[in-house]
């Protein structure tokens, strides 16, 4: 099967080769309808740009660096699928590093990627990152960076996030509607953006339903769920309270699965004794016993939008004015761990 070229696409669509080339690079100079026609035809004909030839032409590496806490997390694996689907079609390679929730590893990964001349960075902060000076210095030097999911709590960065506040509000309100009143919240370190946003939604839902917020029902896991003993200790502390919770809202994949494991170990009936809802993208949530109610984030879309924005920053830096934040909607999937019924809400 012969390799299709830009000239072939241009001839088939009756466009100039320069127009096709700019459309494939997502240039602001090309109107959206032309971009769509070119991208759809290129995908249909299995067109793949040559990254080596492109890098020789414009002195770019045609590579973007990605730093995430861990690939094993299903949410981040979905994000990577989104990132690679866009990057590959636009002629970019993706280099992925894991911080494993370590600030030191995140810093080392950043330095290595910059030394390898990547054209830009996509970053989700580790649970131990409180200082982003290394990223700020790079941005001041012109390095395009887009943060996603776990983002700095500053306006001077580009961000792609989920609506954590609204997702948490809906999850907590749902538990209240099932008759739960002592709702615990197990979450990540206080200083992460997702922690404050999800805690905010949880508190607002309690307030709107006339339930007094009680700090003792909130447990922070310093390592974001990666340390099993930390998860177990948090849940056990809740179970040992004079008035233990009648529901638990966990704020991430690992925290959710860790919490359910402890409840099962203690032979606690879900949802009869303790209702359980997570903030998770686990594909097998419906296979848990009982099937898990959860707030689901648009991970694939988040990865795609972060990559599109980054490549726009790389290829059209002069067209970018100010910093952009995109907030994507979540979905609440209701299953037996809270009500005994299966229902999906958009």
From TrEMBL:
UniProt keyword annotation of RNA-binding present: no
Pfam families, per the entry: LacI, Peripla_BP_1
Ranges of residues in domain HTH lacI-type: 4-58
Listed GO MF terms: DNA-binding transcription factor activity; transcription cis-regulatory region binding
Keywords annotated in UniProt: DNA-binding, Transcription, Transcription regulation
Protein name, entry field: HTH-type transcriptional repressor CytR
The organism of origin for this protein: Dyadobacter helix
């Amino acid at each position: 099967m012969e390799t299709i070229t830009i000239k072939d696409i241009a001839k088939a669509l009756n466009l100039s080769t320069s127009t096709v080339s700019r459309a494939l690079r997502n240039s602001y100079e090309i109107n959206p309808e032309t971009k769509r026609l070119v991208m759809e035809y290129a995908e249909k004909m299995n067109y793949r740009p040559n990254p080596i030839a492109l890098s020789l032409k414009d002195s770019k590496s045609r590579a973007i660096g990605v730093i995430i806490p861990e690939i094993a997390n299903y949410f981040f694996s979905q994000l990577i699928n989104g990132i690679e689907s866009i990057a590959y079609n636009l002629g970019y390679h993706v280099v992925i590093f894991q911080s494993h929730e370590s600030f030191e590893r995140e810093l080392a990964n950043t330095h290595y990627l910059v030394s390898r001349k990547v054209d830009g960075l996509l970053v989700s902060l580790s649970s131990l990152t409180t200082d982003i000076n290394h990223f700020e210095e790079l941005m001041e030097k012109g390095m395009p960076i887009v943060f996603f999911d776990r983002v700095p709590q500053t306006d001077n960065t580009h961000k792609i996030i989920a609506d954590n506040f609204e997702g948490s509000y809906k999850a907590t309100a749902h538990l209240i509607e099932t008759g739960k009143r002592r709702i615990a919240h197990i979450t990540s370190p206080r200083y992460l953006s997702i922690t404050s946003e999800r805690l905010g939604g949880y508190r607002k839902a309690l307030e709107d339903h006339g339930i007094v917020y009680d700090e003792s029902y909130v447990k922070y896991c310093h390592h974001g769920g990666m340390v099993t003993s930390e998860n177990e200790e948090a849940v056990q502390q809740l179970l040992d309270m004079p008035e233990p919770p009648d529901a638990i809202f966990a704020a991430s994949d690992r925290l959710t699965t860790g919490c359910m494991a402890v409840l099962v170990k203690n032979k606690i009936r879900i949802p009869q004794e303790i209702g359980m809802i997570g903030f998770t993208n686990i594909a097998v949530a419906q296979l848990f016993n009982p099937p898990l109610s959860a707030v689901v984030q648009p991970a694939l879309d988040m990865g795609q939008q972060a990559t599109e924005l980054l490549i726009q920053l790389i290829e059209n830096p002069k067209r970018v004015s100010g910093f952009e934040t995109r907030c994507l909607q979540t979905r609440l999937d209701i299953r037996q761990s809270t009500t005994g019924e299966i229902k999906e809400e958009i």
